[in-house]
Amino acid sequence: MIQAAIFDMDGLLVDSEPFWQDAELTVFQSLGVKITRQDTIDTTGIRIDQIVKHYYNTQGWEGPSCDEVCDMILDKVIELVSIHKPMKPGVMHALTLCKEANLRIALASSSPMKLINASLEALGIASWFEQCHSAEHLKYGKPHPEVYLNAAESLRIAPQNCIALEDSFTGLLAAKAAQMRAIVVPEHKVAAQDRWVISDVKLNSLDELSPEMLGA
After folding, report:
1. What was the pLDDT predicted at 216?
2. Cis peptide before 159 (omega within 30 of 0)
3. Which Gene3D superfamilies has this protein been placed in (predicted)?
4. Which of 152, 143, 209 is nearest to 176 (CA)?
5. DSSP state of 61
6. Which of 8, 15, 49, 167 is catalytic?
């Protein structure tokens, strides 16, 4: 029996993926790193420190440390989210359905807590979440399931009794590895790909979510 809904954040609740892409392009290109927008799309859902370390190891740069580059990218994303407040369609509908189904609600994100807090406050939805977990300081980020397992443990609910809501394939892998039921809302340009078949439910928007899909 499903007892909890655990949401991803970037790309699912907050339409921040274009901001991540813009921030990464701006910062990396200023350091002389050769990177395209497609490169930023291909790493959607992966923790920013892992992305930065990858480019440092493969291309390198002089000047700021990897940690400083992470902060530069993060600060730019927070600035853009705070200005534009880009809530994805169907967010309030999904949260309300979960609450009406008496599900506990938590968040499990690859993003740093600084961005999680800023984003939820900007959208005015912080109070909906009983627990918020970041993979920021974990040994492995998504697709490793640890951040989802931590969220379930903090609610004292077995992972098998949780449903995860995701937008990225990396996040979907993490949710399924945690043995959770998974609903995915992929970006439209990749939604037709066969790989989403491992999800339990695939939606075009959170507006399509129904009580039956929650399995509560």
Report:
1. 58
2. no
3. HAD superfamily/HAD-like, Putative phosphatase, domain 2
4. 143
5. -
6. 8
10 is known as an active-site residue = yes
Side chain identity, residue 195: R
- Encoding tokens for residue 196? 């989403």
200 is catalytic: no
- Domain ranges for the chain: 4-15+86-214, 17-84
Stretches where the chain sits below pLDDT 50 are none
Show the tokens assigned to 17.
């993926």
Instruction: Tell me the whole-structure pTM to 2 decimals.
Output: 0.87
| Helices vs strands, H then E, count in the chain | 9, 6
3-class DSSP assignment, residue 107? strand
Catalytic member of 10, 15, 49, 167 = 10
Other CB atoms within 10 Å distance of the CB of residue 90: 19
Q: What's the confidence (pLDDT) of residue 189?
A: 87
Q: Would you state the CATH architecture of domain 4-15+86-214?
A: 3-Layer(aba) Sandwich (3.40)
pLDDT tens digits along 68-79: 999 999 999 999
Class of domain 17-84: mainly alpha
